């Protein structure tokens, strides 16, 4: 009996020992699995050599500072008046300033292309903000300067370039203006369409002295009778030195061939100041 009891005790001890060994084996197996998982996780999270680490959270884009914005326009002096092609009036600091364009001389209002030059200046500059580059002050107290238009062009140069002004060589040695005049002459732009345009400084000198470039015209105008109602009647003249008649009808085919400026004056002025006689091709 004791023999069987002893054998049963041995079996129970061996069974407990085996159960303990199995538990330890399972625990070791779990530890090895956990170690393998941790190693694989480290390899995935570890960036490859030379590659940038991928951020876990997106970086918000950098916002622009609104204080760094700049105005798109720059204020300047506003052109409030056009006296003639080469003289304008600016509003500067609340005061009107008369500016004589530097280096250019446009035809007088009563000369060929005088009104066109004034209109051209008005089209480019009137009512716009411009930049004045002042050179000096003339004897009449006007500021002599260059006007820079909003698009960056020089008003002075544009007048010469398009044949609406002479380069005023007596007061300017600007080679650029001289070259622009030479081009305008060559391509017969503006006033250079006329075969013999009279420079405005010569025109003013003759007007002050009471002279005339054509003695025959002066004599004819002094002796020509003034018709009744001539001071109220409007006629049309081709403002070119090559024309010596005036027209009653603006649509006269002869007048339409005029390459210079067509201006409207009273018949008396056409006779006395321009030395013209009535045209006979179209009549009244």
Automatic annotation (TrEMBL):
SUPFAM superfamilies: Staphylococcal nuclease (SSF50199)
Basic and acidic residues composition bias: residue spans: 21-39
Stated name of the protein: Endonuclease YncB, thermonuclease family
Domain of life: Bacteria
PANTHER family, per the entry: EBNA2 BINDING PROTEIN P100, SERINE_THREONINE-PROTEIN KINASE 31
Region (Disordered): 19-73, 202-225
Signal peptide positions (record): none
Domain TNase-like residue range list: 78-194
InterPro entries (alphabetical): SNase_OB-fold_sf, Staphylococal_nuclease_OB-fold, Thermonucl_AS
GO molecular function, one term: nucleic acid binding
Keywords: Endonuclease, Hydrolase, Nuclease
Sequence ranges of Polar residues compositional bias: 210-222
